[in-house]
TrEMBL record:
InterPro entries reported in the protein's UniProt record: TY-Chap_M, TY-Chap_N
Region Disordered, residue ranges: 336-361
Segments forming domain TY-Chap N-terminal: 30-154
Taxonomic source organism: Paractinoplanes tereljensis
UniProt cross-references to Gene3D superfamilies, sorted A to Z: 3.30.1460.10
Ranges for domain TY-Chap central: 209-340
Organism superkingdom: Bacteria
Entry protein name: YbjN domain-containing protein
Length: 361
């Protein structure tokens, strides 16, 4: 979970409250509302024994073998129980910190082992009459604690008491994944990368990833594939005002990197690192970081089990934010924008006391 760190000064506007990005935030917020509403509507329709498993797709979110999942099961007498992955089920480096655990409790989850038979998972027991409140807790857990940037990054399964799939209305923009079967069940996620192995064993893609990526970008930009701006490294270039966005396909592991050099020849000060950290916490997806004298924005999209909607979301976010951020950061920290004619690099400051904190991100 990322904390919403407030900026020190009152004149520092929150990035997502500005007109250029407000529409994007509204769309993401509405997508989560639709997901929560669909989940709340689905629960009362399930008979005893019916269950729903919702997982943050690790191949799309970049969490590797860390599988963040919530399993909801309808019990007799209109009782409903939900289990959410706890730290004992997550690999080191992907576990929740104390603040995130506190957030889980604040959302109504009992700590692992408190609810009978919950094992290493957080648990909630409620009634179908309160399906709306439970759906809200599950949604906020997936979004705010587990870090799902958008419901499109979720996969779900609905089964009856005999583990037979149930056809239901879509859970918003989340993806129904019947092909990966029961590996999404919470009890099965303790194996060594069970979900990752199952996804890797899916049907081989007939069309190469690079070709699929170019088709998506060409469709979004309304440009023929053979007229895309591709440099000698094979990166697809997309101009976004004074910024440049690149789309790069990597082979090992299969990955699509959507990135932008926001500023070059900028002095990497402590104030810059703090600003990048604060802005990253306000972005709906992706991160900002400084490498040497260049500020980068990056959104990775995993290529295995490639989903065009994930790439479309990444490109939409990056092209909107890059053009906004390069102007804002240039005004505050100097440096050179990609298409900033007349921009001059920031003169290096003479060091006094070394208070640099290093990379925040």
């Amino acid at each position: 979970m990322t904390a919403d760190n407030a900026a020190g000064g009152s004149n520092d506007n929150i990035l997502l409250d500005e007109p250029t990005t407000a529409d994007l935030r509204a769309k993401v917020t509405e997508a989560w509302r639709e997901f929560a509403g669909a989940l709340a509507a689905l629960l009362p329709t399930l008979a005893a024994g019916g269950h729903i498993d919702v997982t943050l797709d690790p191949t799309a979110s970049g969490t590797g073998t860390a599988v963040y999942s919530v399993s909801i099961r309808v019990l007799p007498d209109a009782v409903v129980e939900a289990l959410a992955v706890g730290n004992a089920e997550l690999p080191e480096g992907y576990r929740m910190d104390r603040a995130a655990v506190a957030d889980m409790v604040a959302l109504g989850w009992s700590p692992p082992g408190v609810l009978p038979d919950s094992g290493d998972s957080f648990g909630i027991r409620s009634s179908l009459e309160k399906a709306g409140a439970l759906a809200t807790s599950v949604t906020r857990t997936l979004r705010d604690v587990y870090g799902a940037p958008h419901p499109a990054f979720l996969v779900y399964l609905v089964h009856d008491e005999e583990d037979e799939p149930i056809e239901t209305a879509p859970l918003g923009t989340a993806r129904h994944e019947p092909s990966i079967g029961q590996v999404l069940h919470l009890d099965d996620l303790n194996g060594d990368g069970a979900l990752t192995a199952a996804l890797a064993g899916a049907a081989e893609e007939v069309v190469p990833l690079e070709e699929r990526v170019r088709t998506v970008v060409a469709t979004m930009s309304k440009t023929p594939v053979d007229q895309l701006q591709v440099d000698t490294d094979g990166d697809i270039g997309i101009r976004a005002g004074s910024a440049m966005v690149f789309v790069r396909v990597r082979d090992n592991p299969p990955l699509v990197d959507v990135f932008s050099p926001i500023l070059t020849e900028v002095e990497p000060t402590e104030e810059l690192y703090v600003k990048l950290s604060e802005l990253t916490n306000r972005m709906p997806i992706g991160r900002l970081y400084c490498a040497q004298d260049t500020v980068w924005a990056s959104i990775p999209v995993f290529g295995r089990n490639f989903q065009a909607t994930h790439l479309m979301l990444a490109v939409q976010v990056m092209t909107g934010l890059a053009d906004e951020l390069d102007d804002r950061l240039h005004g505050e920290f100097g440096g050179k924008r990609f298409f900033g004619e007349g921009d001059k690099p920031t003169p290096a400051k003479q060091p006094t006391d070394d208070h640099r904190t290093g990379m925040y991100l």
